Request: fold
Amino acid sequence: MLAMIACQIDVGGPEPPGQPIPTHVDAASELSRSWQAALTSAAKTGQVIVLLDEMQLTSFLAHRLEENEHPALLDPQVYLRQNAIQVYGITERGPLKASVLVVVEPIVNPDGSIALELTTAEIGPIPAPVALKDTISAILTEAFTGSVGSLATGIRVSSLAIADGEMAIAGELR
Reply:
């Protein structure tokens, strides 16, 4: 009986969309530095261009999730592919373990803000719970519109493109 309790049951789920992305403590803070460098440049031209990569976003997400005693997602990976942000990881609840894939497409609103539209949420063989969707959406929204993102820094986003592991955000100072 103890052996059964000690074991975790892997219920499977979606496969990762790519190879594992390494995390690095400095990569999470690079996200803030990228925004700041773009603002410094924009002070002269009024135009803002920010380039972000998978390592920066994976590290940012991993760092934020580590702040929780019981994170909703373990070993998160953020893939920037096919004009979408794909977040993959593992979730554990009691004896159950499952892989998770959440896909959001960023949308530039007419006011220059960024909205994240959830297009896919898979957790093991069942739909992802709302709490997990909300947690990931909140963290990603913070990265783009929160304390280090476009709204906090006064940028009106005019375009956003995602391809080949990178995201480019272009805009102007408000």
